Amino acid sequence: MSMQSTDERGQWGSKIGFILAASGSAVGLGNIWRFPYMTGENGGAAFVFIYLVCVLLIGLPLLINELALGRASGKNPVGAFKATMPGTPFVFTGVLCVILCFVVLSYYSVIAGWTIGYAISSVMGKQLVFSDFVATPKYILPLLAVFLVLTALIVQAGVQKGIERAAKILMPLLLVFVLVIIARSLTLPGAMAGVSYYLKPDFSKINGDVVLAALGQAFFSLSVGWGLMITYGSYMPKNQNMVSGGVWVAFMDTIVAILGGFMVFPAVFAFGMSPDAGPSLTFQTLPAVFEKMPAGGIVATIFFLLLSIAALTSSISMLEVPVSYILDEKKASRSTAAWIVAGFAFLVGIPSALSAGGSKFFTEMQLFGKTGFMDIVDFGFGTVLVVVISLLCSVYVGWVWKPQAAVKEISGGAPSFSGEGRFNLASIWSFFVKYVCPIVITYVLFKTFFPSAG
Q: 440 in a domain, yes or no?
């Protein structure tokens, strides 16, 4: 590889830079939009407890798994499989990662555009009717374009000067905004009923569906199964401790998700709203809550700016995966790659943007039991394909590349990982990657397609 393309590819400048960027990748709409409504639909605190167990036992081993693949190869997801075990059909897993990130970026940016629209309307003191707003192409398409331009501007600037620098600004800002809204929510009369709902588990509510929902949320929230962590791992210096780095990423991601609940439930209970409103909790229930609050317009503006920032920290990593593929495999410049991918993402995102009422055809189309183009694509890519890739990565490291090779890579920056004794961290991690993760993921996949079986 030429010197110029090495510069184009880049490397993290600091451990904190990696942690903030990788946490930013993991922290997205999944934490602040999806986690509260999933908690509301699945019985409150009992769901939160199961979610934490899933993050620790399944999410974290898979996260370290992907980081090891990335750093060992120094490549994008396609190159990672080619470099670690040349000639195996598992290289197709890397191809799936690149496709997944591109497709999800296209419709994720539509939802992110909604958050920008809500932030602008909050500043102007206007109340949006959600169903009318999302069905109006003259609003939705320009907002989709604006969000993709913001994402491309950061990615084209490079790993240190773009992604890392943005993460160091956006992540602390995001946390400050979260804490401001929590402070406002908790000081509302009647807020403690929401806190009680959120923190006191009723374990009688735990059933197979709740466990499945918690595992799914842990999966998608942590950014495993996307190739994002393979790509970010490829920018890690060899002496960086990926175990502590991975733990920090999982911790920060989980903390933001937990804090998301403290923003939402006290406010929802204070105004007698329903906590199980589903996906509309953010765009319909919460604006109604903000409207009733003193200084509600300011709180609404901060909240939707926060959602936009969370979306941006994730979309950066989604764009980076196809960009890193083009850098490594096609030797194009970073700037060219970023703008080409963002341009195509806009075109591919148009059907999703029109599927909430903007086009009868895209709104009413049906497949996989889902209605609407965006829901169909989200199920096929954002749900099923993520689980399939996680399974393939786990099987690949556990049975093809072998855990010993991954352990050697991980131990490079964390010697204590494979320390003395039979039951060291390395042996426990290897057992999870070889047996526990594949079995659990296969079960999740089975239940996704056959929910009524067993």
A: yes
Full residue range of the structural domain in which residue 210 is found: 15-449
Do the domain assignments include residue 294? yes
Burial category of 408 from C-beta neighbours within 10 Å (exposed 0-12, middle 13-18, buried 19 and up): middle
> What residues contact residue 247 under an 8 Å CB cut-off, 6+ apart?
60
Torsion of CA 306, 308, 309, 315, to 10 degrees: 150
Q: What is the pLDDT of residues 26-59, one digit of tens each?
A: 888 878 778 888 888 888 888 999 999 999 999 9
CATH number at residue 269: 1.10.4160.10
Per-residue model confidence as pLDDT tens digits over 339-365:
999 999 999 999 999 999 999 999 999
Do the domain assignments include residue 22? yes
- Residue 405: pLDDT band by 50, 70, 90 thresholds? very high
Number of domains in the chain: 1
